[in-house]
Amino acid sequence: MKNLTRRQFGKGVAAAATASALLPRFAFGEPMPSPLHYPKGFLWGCATAAYQIEGGAAADGRGPSLWDVFSHTPGKTHNGETGDVADDSYHLYKEDVKLLKNLGVSTYRMSMSWSRVFPDGAGKPNPKGMDYYNRVVDELLANGITPYITLFHWDTPAALDGGWQNRATSKSFADYAAYVTKRLGDRVNHWMTTNEFICFTDLGYQIAQFAPGLKLPPAEVNQIRHHAILAHGLAVQAIRANTPSSTQVGLAENAVVFVPVIETDEHVAAARKATRLGNAPFLTTLMEGKYPEEHLAHEGANAPKVEEGDLKAIGSPLDFVGLNIYTPQYVRAADNPMGFAVEQAPSSYPHMFSPWLTLGPECIYWGVRNVCDLWKPKAIYITENGTSSDDVLTSEGRVEDVDRVMYLRNHLTHLHRAVKEDYPVKGYFLWSLMDNFEWADGYSKRFGIHYVDFKTLKRTPKLSAEWYKATIAKNAVE
Ligand code: PNW
Question: Considering the chain, what percentage of its residues have pLDDT values greater than 70?
Answer without folding.
Answer: 93
